[in-house]
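User: Hi! Is it possible to get a structure for several chains at once, not just one? Here's what I have:
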Amino acid sequence: MDSSCNCIEPQWPPDDLLMKYQYISDFFIALAYFSIPLELIYFVKKSAVFPYRWVIVQFGAFIVLCGTTHLINLWTFTLHTRTVAMVMMTAKVFTAVVSCVTALMLVHIIPDLLSVKTRELFLKNKAAELDREMGLIRTQEETGRHVRMLTHEIRSTLDRHTILKTTLVELGRTLALEECALWMPTRTGLELQLSYTLRQQNPVGYTVPIHLPVINQVFSSSHAVKISPNCPVARIRPAGKYMPGEVVAARVPLLHLSNFHINDWPELSTKRYALMVLMLPSDSARQWHVHELELVEVVADQVAVALSHAAILEESMRARDLLMEQNVALDLARREAEMAIRARNDFLAVLNHEMRTPMHAIIALSSLLQETELTPEQRLMVETILKSSNLLSTLINDVLDLSRLEDGSLQLDLGTFNLYVVFREVLNLIKPIASVKKLHVSLNLAPDLPEYAIGDEMRLMQTILNVVGNAVKFSKDGSITITAFVAKAELLSDSRNPEFFPVPSDNHFYLRVQVKDSGIGISPQDLPKLFTKFAQNQSTATQNSGGSGLGLAICKRFVNLMEGHIWIESEGLGKGSTAIFMVKLGIPERLNESKLAFMPKVPPNHGPTAFPGLKVLVMDENGVSRKVTKGLLVHLGCDVTMVSSSEECLRVVSNEHKVVFMDFCTPGMDGYEIAIRMHEKFTKRHERPIIVALTGNTDKVTKESCMRVGMDGVILKPVSLDKMRSVLSDLLEHRVLFEAI
Amino acid sequence: MDIVNQLQRQFIDHSTSLHREGIVDDQFTELQKLQDENSPDFVVEVVSLFFEDSEKLLNNMARALEQAQGVDFKQVDASVHQLKGSSSSIGAMRVKNACIAFRSFCEAQNREGCLRCLQKVTHEYSLLKNKLQSLFRLEQQILAAGGSIPVAK
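Assistant: Yes, the chains can be modeled jointly so their relative placement is included. Here is the combined structure:
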């Protein structure tokens, strides 16, 4: 070759085929090298998240340059100029630089890319886990909903059959059970009987003894227990070719108020349980899950509660029915009793009437006979007839009266009558008999006894007559004294009869009658029996025992009707006796000036003694007001004692003083203290004087404290004469006064 | 008779003025009601006792208030209370009212106020005493002249 050509020759002469293949490969390489970056760019553009764009650029550059190198290589197979070689060399240099840079870069990039992958894996796992948990929660929620629904269903009825049926049905549905069964303890408590099942409508009365180990195991645990499908309680379905599903049993406590079969359970203290058996569908691979077991336990408890409610309801219904029956029976009994009483009364009335007529005839005719000429023996006989028939007549009256009194159907016939006349009539009636027995009868009527009174005249006379008649009957000689007066306030309460505490008022007064005789007396042990029906004093039963023993009993009832009291005092046999009674009588309207028989109203400005001799104690430190109060009271006729200190007051006070006036507003003198001490000193109410506070201020506090401490009244100073007068009369009448302003 | 009538008229006027000026109130009338044959001098006795008592009390009060070193207000109050009680018992209205005012100053422990009240009380008391004494004199004159005490309305 000539040296003028600057071309570079390849090392060896070109082999055609070899060359051709190289040529083609280079070409394709170049093509690939150019298209790869394009593809990369295209796809990276599509993806939004690829973070390493500049890496792509680098990579792209590297590849492009490689491609260029291979492309330029195509020219070097044949003769090529130095320029081509230069270009080739530049390209190769660039490629080398870029490749090295890229290689270095990749050292950083690749670990990052790998870690991305790990994170992705981790997140996937987490997502799977959460999914699982979600699944669980959902299942629990489902269960909860089911339980609520079940409970609602169970509790919406109070009929136990419905409750149980519903339970089984709902459980079956919720848990997709094959079979549900309920075994109940029998009456004897030794066996469990199959009572309800889900699928079979009328279960055959299977029974299983209660003391099987598997049953004990279930009863002793408060949880649902898995039992074997082969145990007797689970073998409800006819055995088949299938594999039975898992069985679970739970106990249902039966609270002792429920009576499933009959009431006579021998032991109620031991807990009784029913057994609930649940079977999963056979041939399914289902297992009992924990949440399902929980559901079963909850339901079992709910059922127990619902059943006991149902039982309570049944019980109360039964009780109510029983009560209604009893009511009806009682009503009937009452009506019958009423009819009986009415019949008896009618009978008595008729009898009475029937008996009285002949009695009347006998008495009348015998009296008439007495008037005629008779021989002494005849006279005696007639007198005896008369006496006996009188007694008989009295007896009839008494019996009738008593029966009416007992019913409470007796009512007093109130009317205005002359009291003096009544007494005189009694006297007249009794005088003949008394004179026969040589008894002296005297009548003392107090001057303040009102002439007229309102009450039951007949019955009052009957009472007085009875009492006086008794006195005459039981006295052989001596005298009988009848005293009648108006009972005064202080004497109204008798220490013998502490319960009897009558309070006279404006239009009533208490008449007190005392009949004293000098007869045979009554021994102390007989005293209480006197007023009992038909009880006779044994010692006198032989002696002129004419009475039936009803007299005093009737008197007592009459006196009680008149809101009074009757009793007999006697110092013993042979020492005579005194019969005393008090009755409440009304005061007729027109006699208004003697409002209260024992407290005649004082005309104003004149000072007749309104409260004669009333002993009063006045306590006041202030000399002047003491003198004024004393003057007031003396003017009203009281007997006033004055003290000036609380010690003196407590020393001097006695049960003779009826009223104590205490000045209250002296500082240093504790009025409350005195009141309390006075209450202590006089324990019996009627012995204690009435305590009244005189004070200058009447605010509520003072009044309340006075009341609390036991004072009987509060008066505002200064006190006028009229006010003092009315205060005293109110006090003595009512023993209490709380507003005298 | 003429003298008696004159005296009686005087008595009535005096009595009425006492009531009108508020020196005595109805309680005094009540006191007069209590006078009867059993206690003919009741009113005089009570009023004399009142005068004795009040003079003692007023002296106590004056002495207590004069104490330069620490007035014992409690003591003063106690005396005023007594005076108030007595005066209300006989119906000396103005004295009583003055006492009420006096008490509030005692509670406030105001010496100046107390002294002023004491003056007022003393003044009222003197006035009352004069009037009552002239009333009693008139009564005696009437009785001496053979007349009867008219019941003033």
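Chain B has six helices and no strands. Chain B has a mean pLDDT of 87.

User: Great, thank you!
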